[in-house]
Amino acid sequence: MNIEIANQFIDEWHRGINSFTLQTSGSTGAPKAILLEKILMQWSAANTASVIHPTKEDSILCCLPCTKIGGLMMLVRALEWQLPIEIIEPIANPFLFERRANIVSLTPFQLHQVLTNAESKAHLKKTRAVIIGGGELAETLEALLLHSEFENTVFYHSYGMTETYSHIALRAINGPNASAYFKPFDDVKISINEEGCAHIKLPLNFIELTTTDIITMTPDGSFKVTGRADFMINTGGVKIQPELIEKAIRETLKPQNAFIISSEKNEALGNKIILIAEQSFEYNLEDLAFLKTINPYALPKAIKVIEKFERNASDKIIRF
């Protein structure tokens, strides 16, 4: 399926189609269809090239869904950089088999799966550049990338979303340019609004948007994401809206005590979904299995009980 979608896009690209419709992931609000302009897709690919420096000896592996911006932009990079590309179905561990490509983009979940398998990790070491996107990167997972066995591979953590045509900032995790801060592309303007969230302005047709990402910035314009202004949870690269899951639980199980859907750090997923209840929760994880029909990632991995939630003046639970 991924190959068919990719081939259709490539055909439309060569036929001179100048705009493409894609579904957003929900980073800046409810998922919606947006129109992507070819000129900005080319701009994005050129900026990535200025960091990764592709050569004619390189090749690309696309192991992300081409229905999403991460996979789609791997196709664009191959087209713009005039490099061969191998397109496979999105799977948890794309390096179970040896790959000829040496430039790849992975989600944190995929990266975790690769690193926990000795054979696939050996295959990964043959890549030159790995772009990590689609979710937060756990500190324990990042630490594994600093090992000397990856001295010939540079890992880049990316920051971006569908609306920004994939990443608009990268940070090298290892190597001589390693940094804890994302460095925006030269022609991307990032500022902080009154709520402390990132405001992004792209060139050419001057797309502007405000995210719910709370950031801190350095004098040179590099930045670090310190939190989110909303309650969206990113688990394994999938965006989960806690309020929707809570509504489904209330309507289906009708629990007596207050509860919320929250998350905690997880090496494989970045964040794992958990349910936190006040005083007690009369159901177990098996009772929550129906949530898989909403989204397989919506099923909590654990249930935790606390004595009392903190509440604001309106008696609403203060999330954590």
Q: Which homologous superfamily in CATH is the superfamily of the largest domain?
A: ANL, N-terminal domain
Query: What is the C-level CATH assignment of the largest domain?
Result: Alpha Beta
Uncertain segments: none
Number of strands: 18
Q: Major sheet, described briefly? A: 7 strands, mixed
How many angstroms does the end-to-end distance come to? 39 Å
CATH architecture group name of the largest domain: 3-Layer(aba) Sandwich
Across the major sheet, the strand order is 4-3-5-6-7-8-9
Describe this structure in words.
- The protein is α/β, with parallel strands linked by helices.
- It folds into two domains: 2-185 and 220-228, Rossmann fold (3-Layer(aba) Sandwich); 233-306, ANL, C-terminal domain (GMP Synthetase, Chain A, domain 3, 2-Layer Sandwich).
- 23% of the residues lie in helices and 29% in strands.
- The chain is built from seven helices and 18 strands.
- The strands form five sheets. A seven-stranded mixed β-sheet has the order 4-3-5-6-7-8-9. It has a four-stranded antiparallel β-sheet with strand order 10-11-12-13, with no helix packed on it. Strands 16-17-18 form a three-stranded mixed β-sheet, with helices on one face.
- Helix 2 (38-52) crosses helix 3 (69-81).
- The mean pLDDT is 91.
